[in-house]
Amino acid sequence: MSTENEIQIDSRVTASLHPGVVDALDPDGVEAGVLAPTRAAFALAYNAISKMHTARAVASKDPTMTEATMTIAVADMGDRLMDKVTREFDSVRANLVKGIDALEASLRRPVEVQGAASVSAEIRAHIARMAPGERMEFLRKRIQAGDTITASAALGAPGYLSGIEDEVQTVLTRMFHERNSPDTARRLKAMQAARDLIEGNAPLTFKERDKAVGKHPGQVKLLRDAHAKTRAALA
Fold first, then answer.
1. Predicted TM-score (pTM) of this structure
2. Could you tell me if residue 95 is inside a domain?
């Protein structure tokens, strides 16, 4: 039996919709809380397809149902379940995008100078005398070393004071924040991976639904139309 966190594997459903694919994004479970909504959405989709297969298997043993009526019944069930699944995936993705935008903004925010004004000025002058390529490499190493005094002196002031181009300052500013806010950087990476996973795998629910129903939507419509005419004639 499955538990809240362990979804029983159903060989009839693609593994790409199993919530385990979300767990694989964060093997150590550090960002489990952030990924929980995504995991729940995949669990909902996986269980929905599994229920459809089970319903079809049960219906196939009902002597009162023909192949057509069974297909219509399972398709009706699938429509209800897929409506919930689709809305859930859309909602989770929308929230992920909002969260990603907020974290991206925090990693682009201006750097605050942390050293004394006189020291910071000397640091900028020193960096300005370097060759262009040397400047970026020097600052990259200072950032990686955790030297916030040096890094913030250059990044917390207009780039031209240190001879740094705007594009380079943008890259180094992000690097600075990622180095000094590792939790934010890790959370952003997890959320981006979750968004990409939804965009890549969620569409598979429709293919899996058709497989469980046994017919594609166009064929189901023809069966429904024929069934509706029969009911109308018998009314």
1. 0.86
2. yes
